[in-house]
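W.,

You were right to be curious about this one. When I first looked at the sequence I had no strong expectations either way, so I just let the prediction run and decided to look at it fresh. Below is the sequence, 187 residues in total, followed by the output.
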Amino acid sequence: MPNQALQQTGHANKACARHFGFFRVSRLLSWLFGEEGGAMRLHHQTWLALLTVLGILLAVNLWCWRPGIGGSGSSRPPGTELELFYGWPATYQAEWWRSEDTTLARRLLQSAPFCYSGDMELQARYLRVLPALADVAFAAAALFALGVVVESAVRRFWPRWAVVGSVLAILVMAAVLCVANTISEHV
């Protein structure tokens, strides 16, 4: 039922008519927070926190922050090797690059972690779905927990589902952290 202020101004039908499709999430949140009459609007602090953490999670998962740079082993010809690992907390993609240029390692070390493998040849690339799904589960749980905690703190209202949901999200994040190393892809 539309709220009374909208009915008095004659905007009740317009406000109710726009709550479809895109607004399902906000209607779910308004139901969870016990608000009646339509979509809940998240506070700007919540949006800022969610967008900041989303940006950090995307940067951590889409760029290789821990490259392996070195020379060839004794069984291979001299040159430079570069190993790139993508994903956090689980590594979903690993790449092995090689070059015959022995001086390239020094240049790569000076620019790490912003290594450019353009002068090298790709030797192997491994990609696994399970670590990628673990990273997505970690990100979804982190964003959910953060959104619920920030919004509940701003509202000064902690419904039971918010506490239980946050604890479950933290358990999902802890589980992913525990299995991340065993399911990660390695070169």
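Here's what jumped out at me. The chain has a mean pLDDT of 81. And, maybe more interesting for your project: The two ends are 58 Å apart (CA to CA).

Coffee later to discuss?

I.
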